[in-house]
Specification:
The complex is a heterodimer of chains A (168) and B (148). Chain A is built from 6 helices and 5 strands. Chain A is of the alpha+beta class and 168 residues long. Chain A has a 5-stranded antiparallel beta sheet, with helices on both faces. Chain A starts with 6 loop residues before the first helix and ends with a helix. Chain B has one domain: Muramoyl-pentapeptide Carboxypeptidase, domain 2, CATH 3.30.1380.20. A 4-stranded antiparallel beta sheet of chain B has the order 1-2-4-3, covered by helices on one side. In chain B, a hairpin with a 2-residue loop joins strand 3 and strand 4. In chain B, helix 1 packs across helix 2. Classes of the chains: A alpha+beta (168), B alpha+beta (148).
């Protein structure tokens, strides 16, 4: 058995196997379907509050050092120390440079299906920090995306905002 | 002394994530590729256990088995002799938790134990096997070539 404590180090090995075969995004879509099967109905029904409640459990069980604020149609998460990437970096095997992509890789399709809009700042791939904002109003998400673009390269931002909105 | 000290909260749902990742790799890349990812996990992630086994020191392997199965509330029996370690898991905590989640482990789910253990032993005087007693009950056996 791979201990649940060590899952992320196995996950990292899976990414290193799949990336050269061009299968990483297909895998993220698969994780998204798996996550959706467990959470989508809750997110659709409960919106931002349901996502906040989900992360209250995750923050505790996964030992996240994360600030979370839910205010007036915006759910803001600031990951100060990601336990997942921290373990992958504290590892005798090398870290996949694409490791952090799995988070928006699964959240974006689930949020899209739930009618929520995420703006995700990946920050640096070798530092266990990231930040994201979630909205039920695409206009507010677009405003956040544009504000973030003032200071962060587009290559480090992920969003599920429709292309038509981004190109306006 | 364990290389990876883990004392915080457990997120047991990761057993479902492991199973899901195994299914994906098996479906898209084949059984052999899955075995290689698992074996590489054993060899590289658990380098510290492997290097100690190569030097004839099984202490971290024994500590690893006991600590992580204890953490996951698994009933187990350990028998250690000079050239053999027998670790009997009476109710696999990964399978028990997945069933609580309403998930059925993949038919090849136990490859994670077989191949990770084999990876830990690679290039050492130790070999590993797994005897399956029941669906959630196994004995993990590590044998060392007797010293000449």
């Amino acid at each position: 058995m791979i201990p649940s404590d060590h899952f992320v180090r196995f996950y990292n090995e899976v990414f290193k196997c799949l990336e050269p075969k061009g299968l990483l995004q297909t895998y993220f879509d698969d994780i998204g379907r798996y996550a959706a099967s467990r959470n989508l109905e809750k997110f659709k029904k409960g919106g931002l509050q349901a996502v906040y409640d989900y992360y209250l459990v995750i923050r505790k069980e996964e030992n996240c050092e994360m600030d979370m604020e839910l205010n007036d149609g915006e759910f803001h998460q600031r990951m100060n120390k990601c336990p997942s990437l921290s373990k992958v970096l504290n590892n005798d095997a090398s870290a996949s440079p694409s490791y952090c992509l799995h988070c928006p890789g699964w959240t974006l399709p689930v949020y899209t299906a739930a009618g929520l809009y995420q703006v995700y700042n990946l920050k640096e791939p070798d530092q266990p920090h990231c930040e994201s904002w979630l909205y039920d109003d695409p206009k507010r998400a677009l405003a956040r995306y544009r504000k973030l673009l003032e200071t962060v390269p587009a290559s480090r931002i992920r969003t599920n905002l429709p292309k038509s909105l981004l190109e306006e | 002394m364990l290389r990876y000290q883990e004392n915080n909260e457990l997120h047991r749902n990761f057993h479902g994530s492991t199973d899901n990742a195994m299914r994906f790799v098996e479906k898209t890349c084949g059984r052999e590729a899955l075995k290689e990812v698992l074996r590489k996990t054993g060899r590289d992630v658990y380098k510290s256990i492997r290097e100690k086994l190569a030097r004839g020191d099984a202490s971290e392997l024994i500590e690893h088995l006991c600590w992580f199965y204890y953490r996951e509330n698994a009933p187990f029996k350990l028998e250690v002799s000079e050239n053999e370690i027998r670790f009997e898991v009476l109710a696999c905590p990964a399978h028990v938790h997945m069933k609580k989640m309403g998930l059925e482990p993949a038919p090849f789910n136990c490859l994670q134990t077989e191949e990770v253990n084999a990876g830990m032993c690679e290039g050492t005087p130790w070999t590993s096997t797994v005897e399956h007693i029941g669906p959630d009950h196994c004995v993990q056996i590590f044998r060392k070539e007797p010293s000449k």
